[in-house]
Design a protein that fits this description.
It is a single chain. By secondary structure, this protein is α+β, with helices and mostly antiparallel strands. It has one domain: 2-Layer Sandwich (Thymidylate Synthase, Chain A). The chain contains eight helices and eight strands. Helix 1 crosses helix 8 and helix 2 packs across helix 7. The two termini are about 25 Å apart.
């Protein structure tokens, strides 16, 4: 995970200090790329413990098209709780726990008609189903893209999608993925995003009969919050450990049939977790 450490160091050394929406303050760089060869191990950070279960459950939630935190809470995942409170959802006239047109909506029901009560009809475009069929039938396409960013709906959620667009690429029987992230909380969010899209790439590759290639991460406003500087320095002081291995149930052939029991990581070694406050 040297690429991630290099990013932390770049921000600390070269970043510019900026104000931000949360009032916390950030140190930011604009434009950064990291590349991970997924055949060499699963890119789950080793210099601090990362809660893989939360990553996997969240991804399954996205793929299901869900926008309510009930599934997450039922599975004891709390990473969206700060944006699902009654105070936050009341701003958009939604019941507590309903997040509106966030990732699951955009991935599975893009452009759907909004009802008077704030819910959506199931008449949008299912980008994930289309993507899988396109990879199988037209793997050389340069349009293997899923967009999480809908400008018409970006102001209708407390937290519009940060990882906004991803593209797949097939070559020599291998599937690669590149993610563009408009806003990147490098200490807390980016480790989750790297692992989540690496997991998604493995899952898509399996159901399409492909091996995995690279995962490429590209950041726009790439930042450390000002109250994460010391945590980042602590992480940089730690040595990296060997990467773990991802194991998927080989019997799953439909992207929507994966459950958490079909996903496992083997031999995950890490330094202890490092706590840091979430900026809301």
């Amino acid at each position: 995970m040297k690429a991630y450490h290099d990013l932390l160091q770049r921000i600390l050394d070269q970043g510019g200090d900026k104000s931000d929406r949360t009032g916390t303050g950030t140190r930011s760089v604009f434009g950064h790329q990291m590349r991970f060869d997924l055949s060499k191990g699963f890119p789950l950070l080793t210099t601090k413990k990362v809660h893989f279960r939360s990553i996997a459950i969240e991804l399954l939630w996205f793929l299901n098209g869900d926008t309510h935190v009930k599934y997450l809470k039922d599975n004891k995942v709390s990473i969206w709780d700060e944006w699902a409170t009654a105070e936050q959802t009341a701003k958009f006239n939604r019941p507590e726990g309903e997040l509106g047109p966030v990732y699951g909506h955009q991935w599975r029901n893009f452009g759907a008609t909004k009802n008077a009560d704030g819910t959506y009809q199931n008449n949008g475009f299912d980008q994930i189903s289309w993507l899988i069929q396109e990879i199988k039938n037209n793997p050389d396409s340069r349009r293997l893209i899923v967009s999480g960013w809908n400008p018409n709906e970006a102001t209708q959620v407390a937290l519009p999608p940060c990882h906004t667009l991803f593209q797949f690429f097939v070559q020599d029987g291998k599937l690669s993925c590149q993610l563009y992230q408009r806003s990147a909380d490098v200490f807390l969010g980016v480790p989750f995003n790297i692992a989540s899209y690496a997991l998604l790439t493995h899952m898509v590759a399996q159901v399409c009969g492909l091996k995995v290639g690279d995962f490429v991460w590209a950041g726009g406003d790439t930042h450390l919050y000002s109250n994460h500087f010391e945590q980042a320095k602590l992480q940089l002081s730690r040595s990296t450990l060997p990467l773990c291995e991802l194991k998927l149930n080989p019997n799953v052939t439909n992207i929507f049939d994966f459950s958490f029991d079909d996903i496992d990581i083997l031999n995950y070694q890490s330094h202890p977790a490092i706590k840091a406050a979430v900026a809301v």
